[in-house]
Amino acid sequence: MSAKTLTQADLASLVGDLVAAGTRVVAPSRTGVGPLQHLDYREIKKADEMTLDAGLPKRSIKELFFPPTEVLFRWKQKKNDFELQEVETKFQKTVVIGARPCDAAAPEIVDRLMNWDYKDELWNGRREATTIVALACDGQDKSCFCTAVGLGPDSTKGADVLLVPVKGGYHAEILTAKGEALVKDFGKRFGEAKSADEAGKFRETARAKVEGNLKVDPKPIRTWLDGHFEDKYWGEIALRCHGCGACASVCPTCHCFDIVDEPEGIYEGARRRNWDTCQTGKFTLHGSGHNPRGTQNMRFRQRVTHKFAIYPRKFEEILCTGCGRCARACPGGMDLLEILSDIGQMAGGAA
Amino acid sequence: MAAKTSTDKASFKPRIAAFVCNWCTYTGADLAGTSRLQMAPNVRIIRLPCTGRIDPLFIIKAFERGADGVIVSGCHPADCHYTSGNYHARRRFAVARDVFGFMGIDPKRITFSWVSASEGGKWAEVVNDTTARVQELGPFSAYREMEARV
Amino acid sequence: MQALQELARKLLTDKTANVVIGWGQGPRGPRPIFVTQPEHADRLIFDTRCVHNLATYLNPRRAHLVPFVKKAVVVKPCDARAVAGLIRETQVKREDVVLIGMRCGGVVRDSDMDGKLTEATVSPRCMDCPDREPKLADHLMGEEASAPPKGKGPDMIAKLDAMSPAERWEFWQKELERCVRCHACREVCPMCFCDRCIADKSMPQWIESSPHPRGNLSWQMTRVMHMAGRCVGCGECTRACPVDIPLGLILRKMTQTVEERFGYRVSDDPTVPAPMGAYRLDDKQEFIL
Ligand code: SF4
Ligand code: SF4
Ligand code: SF4
Ligand code: SF4
Ligand code: SF4
């Protein structure tokens, strides 16, 4: 691992260099006017389209690797025969600039599932083509709890380069081979590292700030979840939940999908993979009409249990980066921080 | 997907889907045919029991599947075989027209008409009018471009 | 507030209601709470940040709330309109609900704001709300309220109406391109009460479930059509949408049409028939050849 300096001006030039080299650059970007403004990660062509100082985009970078809808293959019927058309699994080189650490960490967590039995070519293809330049953050608001799940506002997990804001630009930590390659290809934009101390202070302050939001130990929580499937807590906590799935849509780690066949004319069509979520009643509805997760209480229990017990058991990773998006997006006021803290207490006091 | 329509205006042949009720307009259209009236050949008729059975979703589906224009037609007020299906339809389409228009679908692409069983001539007019109007607007390429992005 | 808490305590104690659905303080501002014990009635609050339309919890689709049977709900005038809608369309029995009406002078856009009501913070749904107190209520509380501040900013509906169809198309394509088809807009809506939504039907599949431009457009056009004469303008769908699509614009446009053409204004009187289930012999038909 090495360190460099990247000034504001050099970062802007780097965006230009990358675009000129035919690389897709994705960064937080504000679009729309007035009340219709959005901050999203989206492809940019010029550095001034990038908005790095407006906090966490509403949606995560998940969709860069796992789009809300994608074609798995297309088919054409010819008399009694079918012709299948494969889809491209090679993807355009992409550099994400300014991914928040809670976003950068997520694809690495989901990698485990996408390569568990079946190796998902589409996910892996996009992962390989993408370099993530994360940006250390100083906490969005009181719903951030990355530090409680073993990450932090300066976490390097999943990042190829981590930028830490310092006066005039960024202190850049080069973390992986992909990060090294970026520095090698665009060497003239990176200067000698000289602000390690200042960066260290920024990181410390940010951590302290976020740590105050939630202090829990995920281990006893996992144990409690394993033993309290039928606890009455689930019946109380989820009453306000609408089962709308907004939480899963904005979540960087939720990755469930539905597979559908869609006709595109009479003799042709496509098989697609679309985002889905365990929060809707239809998710587990059987053809017989029976629904093993018949009420919202059960569905919400699934959300928490999958993230904090099932996924950790299978992959030794918590399926949550503590970004707090679910709490911000929830129209019903469900709050994962509160729930983790409740469970933490029931599991034997806060850590 | 769906139909490839020429984007060249001169050679453009509009594809128009007509949702008609069984009792009045379908019979009227039949009469127009047997009376050998001059009609543009662009209209495919889909017969339904009543305008009350025509969901605005049918219009959307027709555009999705390649139509450039849509006709919805049924019995005149007071003539509905089921007494009030057309009155309900009238309310529904009044709203649909505004909502679809607000979302950017040109209301000129959609014709609503009352054509009775004896109005073969009126049906020919509706068909010719609609075809001319859609011919003028050109193919609904916006819908097709949207599909190309899918 | 105290009156509200006292009433809730009484309703729970004498078993008039098995649950009082109201607002309580949550980590990010007021949020829905479900009070079942009289001693917890003091958790109830009401202020300008109480944006949620709690009528949505009466919707029979919420299987986990059905067992409460007798529910008391705290409602603002707009929420009462939704309750009336549910009664009008036989989804809720009037005798099963106790309505605690709150006088209302408007709410802010979202519950995590500080609650100061100004031109800039007022919720779009309050801008032309005529009701200061619900008529459909068993109890009426709160202070006399004055009209909410008029919001500022362009009238987007007028702006869109002035555009050409092609420009409007562009506008909506840009907005709908973000839709991920979570159907949150449907799930939170108090008036979306179908047991099985047409968007969930696959045989035949009328609306493609994929979040691509084609499916997204079909979905919103259909949803708005199904809301014709139903939508109470509570704005919950817009608030819930995780990608901030201005759904309220389409719904307001539809509501304007319903009002202009059929003289129907969504009210909290459940005895007025729903406009799409009714008709007049002389309904305007200038658009029909
Ligand atoms: S569960 Fe919530 S906090 Fe955790 S990663 Fe998902 S959105 Fe973020
Ligand atoms: S927790 Fe909130 S966002 Fe998630 S499904 Fe329930 S109501 Fe929707
Ligand atoms: S719409 Fe009317 S009743 Fe509803 S919150 Fe606003 S001012 Fe109050
Ligand atoms: S809530 Fe928004 S993103 Fe979800 S389906 Fe509705 S419009 Fe689409
Ligand atoms: S459509 Fe939206 S504004 Fe209308 S009642 Fe439903 S949630 Fe409220």
What would you note in describing this structure?
The complex is a heterotrimer of chains A (351), B (150) and C (289). Chain A has 351 residues and is α+β, with helices and mostly antiparallel strands. Chain A is built from twelve helices and twelve strands. In chain A, helix 7 crosses helix 10 (296-315) and helix 7 crosses helix 12. Chain A is globular, with a radius of gyration of 22 Å. Chain B is α/β, with parallel strands linked by helices. Chain B has one domain (14-148): Rossmann fold. Helix content of chain B is 43%, strand content 15%. Chain B has five helices and four strands; from the N terminus they run E-H-E-H-E-H-E-H-H. Chain B has helices spanning 25-34, 56-64, 85-102, 120-137, 141-149; strands at 16-21, 43-48, 69-74, 110-114. The longest helix of chain B has 18 residues, at 85-102. Chain C has 289 residues and is an alpha/beta fold. Chain C has two domains: 2-141, no CATH class; 156-277, no CATH class. Chain C is 28% helix and 10% strand. The longest helix of chain C has 16 residues, at 247-262. Chain C is globular. Classes of the chains: A alpha+beta (351), B alpha/beta (150), C alpha/beta (289). Chains in contact: A-B, A-C, B-C. Chain B binds chain C through residues 56-57, 60-61, 64, 77-78, 84, 87-88, 90-107, 111-114, 126, 129, 142-143, 146-147, 149-150, and chain C through 160-161, 165-173, 198, 206-207, 210, 212-214, 217-218, 220-222, 224-225, 228, 250, 253-254, 257-258, 261-262, 275-281, 283-285, 287-289. The complex binds iron/sulfur cluster (5 copies).
Summarize the structure.
The complex is a heterotrimer of chains A (351), B (150) and C (289). By secondary structure, chain A is an alpha+beta fold.
Q: DSSP helix count of chain C?
A: 8
End-to-end Cα distance of chain B, whole Å, is 10 Å
Order of helices and strands of chain C: HEEEHEEHHHHHH
Mean pLDDT of chain C: 92
Find the structural class of chain B using helix and strand composition.
alpha/beta
- What best-fitting shape of chain B do the alpha-carbon axes yield? globular
Query: Can you give the helix content of chain B as a percent range?
Result: 40-55%
CATH topology of chain B: Rossmann fold
CATH architecture of chain B: 3-Layer(aba) Sandwich
Rg of chain C: 20 Å
Uncertain segments of chain C are: none
Q: Report the count of strand segments of chain B.
A: 4
Sheet having the most strands of chain C: 5 strands, mixed
Number of helices of chain B: 5
What is the strand tally of chain C? 5
Name the average pLDDT of chain B. Answer: 86
Reading off the top of the CATH hierarchy, the class of chain B is best stated as Alpha Beta
